[in-house]
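re: ur question from earlier - yeah i can do the single chain one, its not a big deal. heres the input i used so u can compare w yours
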Amino acid sequence: MKFGQVADASEIDFSFVDIPQETLKYLQKFKEADGFEVFVGYPKWSKADLKGFYPRGTKDELRYYSEQFNAVEFNGTFYRSPSKEQILTWKERTTEDFRFCPKFTNSISHYSRLNNTDEKVEAFVDATVLFEEKLGMAFLQMPENFRPKVMERVESFMQKFPKGYPLAFEVRHAEWYNDPAVYGEYLDILRSNHITNTQIDTPGRRDTLTFQLTSPVLFVRFVSSTPLIDQLRLQAWVSRIKELKAAGLQQVYFFIHQRIDAETAFLSTDFNTALNRELGTNLPIAHK
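and the output i got, formated as tokens:
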């Protein structure tokens, strides 16, 4: 993900904003609920994207990936809506506790821009629900030039969206974030339709990381900067997730966008180790 990438991140203030009171108040209703789950992964599983990861002779990359990570931010579905047969094949190739988070096809978000998309949404949902218990949180990312002047279109889309299907929504244009009234209206639409507000932690756009939650699910897309800075950033995330869990958070989907080559370590290794230690989770620890 290139959104918010910068050439030099050394002067950027990566400190978090305080957890908004609206989020703390909202999470209160889930505080007594049982269970807490964390899923951490990468955007893709192919050998071309995870260079140097797969042992020589690996025949099923997806199966091996699912043994090392418990989720994938599935960007492959952005370019082509999957068939039901393909969904079933992917499902059967993964471990029992694995989760797919498929990205809605660009024909819905970028080409149609939410206009007249009922049939496309229905086809995507009808296929991906076949992941069944392995369906995590699907997500829909709007293009960067999609602006809040079409707020009514967003509301109409969300009101018609299939109820009960897990969805995170992402907007990028600065106008969504720099006007409190606009952003407040947007959050109200998400909350009233039980749709998750995507948190984007990227160096060049700190405004998109608001910690305004609209469901008891934290869906994070983390864009790397430099190894040393990223380690500090992820340490802060461990503490913040711990805070949100205490407030009532139920689930976390955390996806790391970093360049992977044969010499580069996975940022998730230390991150998952810290989450297991601090939150009592049992996340797999991937090693090259």
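Strands lie at 37-42, 71-74, 99-102, 138-141, 167-170, 196-197, 199-201, 217-223, 251-257. not sure if urs matches, ping me
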